[in-house]
Design a protein that fits this description.
By secondary structure, the chain is an alpha+beta fold. 22% of the residues lie in helices and 28% in strands. The strands form 3 sheets. It has a 6-stranded mixed β-sheet. Strands 1-2 form a two-stranded antiparallel sheet. It has a two-stranded antiparallel sheet with strand order 9-10. Strand 7 and strand 8 form a beta hairpin. The chain is globular.
């Protein structure tokens, strides 16, 4: 009997598949640790929370950072599309590359049906890429998971805040964000 293994793709191979038209925007996939993974369909609570949170953060960080919504970032073995990425301002508006780990201030995933993936698999990917600040907004429970202090084994700090909590991005400690502004009003 022959053992089979999954084929793990490099970021470069993933890009070549897009350039060749093998993968298109219609495929709704992302590269996670070398695996091409189908992204979940967006429910109205997920989409609405993503838009609301993105708009609020964009307003608070105007002229200090670029706020990207559901666009790729490039890491060593992954090219995920986080719901919100707060990145360095790039004069070329990232027209020649996706932001990489050194250009990322904060990543936010909005979770409605993907909480385990976001707090386990994606948290480990982001920690290994040395993303210092990663948040998961749990829409169903109205809580925010705040991950900090990345190591190759994962984040060393994880706190869960209720929607009435306040948190400041590590890169912008002077900007306090009331979590209630990121979730829909009750």
């Amino acid at each position: 009997m022959t053992a089979t293994r999954d084929k793990l793709w490099t970021v470069e191979e993933y890009h070549r598949m897009m350039d060749a038209g093998i993968l298109t925007e219609d495929d709704k996939v992302e590269l996670l640790n070398g695996r091409i993974v189908q992204m979940s369909a967006q429910t109205p609570p997920h989409a609405g929370t993503t838009q609301r949170a993105s708009d609020y953060i964009k307003e608070r960080l105007a002229a200090q950072a670029h706020v990207r919504m559901q666009l790729p970032i490039t890491l060593a073995t992954s090219e995920p599309e986080p719901d919100i990425a707060i990145v360095r301002i790039d004069a070329g508006a990232y027209g020649d590359h996706h932001p990489n780990a050194s250009e990322i201030f904060l990543l936010i995933e909005v979770s409605y049906s993907t909480l385990q993936i976001d707090i386990e698999e994606k948290a480990l990917i982001y920690a290994r890429a040395n993303i210092s600040d990663y948040w998961v907004l749990d829409v169903a429970e109205r809580e925010a998971y705040i991950f900090r202090n990345p190591t190759p084994d994962g984040y060393q700090s994880e706190i869960i805040l209720p929607d009435n909590g306040v948190v400041a991005p590590l890169a912008f400690p002077e900007i306090e964000i009331p979590l209630s502004e990121l979730f829909f009003p009750v």
